# Entry
Amino acid sequence: MSGPYTLISFDLDGTLVDTAGEIAEAANRTLAEFGVPRQDEAFVRGFIGAGTRQMMLRLMAHLLLRDPALAGRLRAERVLERLEVHYGQTVGTSARVYAGAHEALAGLRQAGLRLACVTNKEHRFALRVLQATGLAERLDVVIGGDTLARHKPDPLPLRQVMAQFGAEPHQTAHVGDSSIDVEAARAAGVQAWAVPWGYNAGQPIEAAGPHRIFHSLPEVAAHVLAPPRVAQAA
Ligand SMILES: O=C(O)COP(=O)(O)O
Ligand SMILES: [Mg+2]
# Structure
């Protein structure tokens, strides 16, 4: 049985904050320097999930498949260097907090729960998004994709946060938008909760097999804070 919960971990991109616009903008400013035309945000969005560098490498791989002639221009190392510069300029500038995120986190914190952000975004960029949106102060810890030796879907980041706050797996849930989150949560033995409004490489999140799907973040808080149901005597 799971609960009562003491620790809730949240994914960042596609779960707490819509960051696809500013990630796509950084990718497009980078591509422009290499003479590659702008790509739609919806196309770039499908590559978000394993960190910003991975997003760019996956995007490049698709562009090269489409047009192998680009191989002479798109050198991975140089592209990633330029992405670092451009994302440094766009990160946190147009990120939008999903409806109800502030209220949900505030309610959970007020009830005494520990709150973590476990993201695959590089730590320095994750902090910029969280600070720009005012979410940083609502969280007890932020683990980025480059904070530890391994990142989601490996269970290490979730295990690290659980150890930090003395939470057992049955007292912990991780809320995310992608199969990477579901896999990490299941590998850590915690509740794998999902939201359907994120990225997940364009696939419906149901297919990832989460324990539960929530249709708003306040719904997550309400579920966590609901009084335990007393079993009816027969
Ligand atoms: O930045 C990414 O690619 C993924 O970040 P997330 O783990 O917060 O979804
Ligand atoms: Mg995500």
In short: Residues 52-66 form the longest helix (15 residues). The mean pLDDT is 95. Strands lie at 7-10, 17-18, 96-97, 114-118, 141-143, 172-176, 191-194, 212-213.
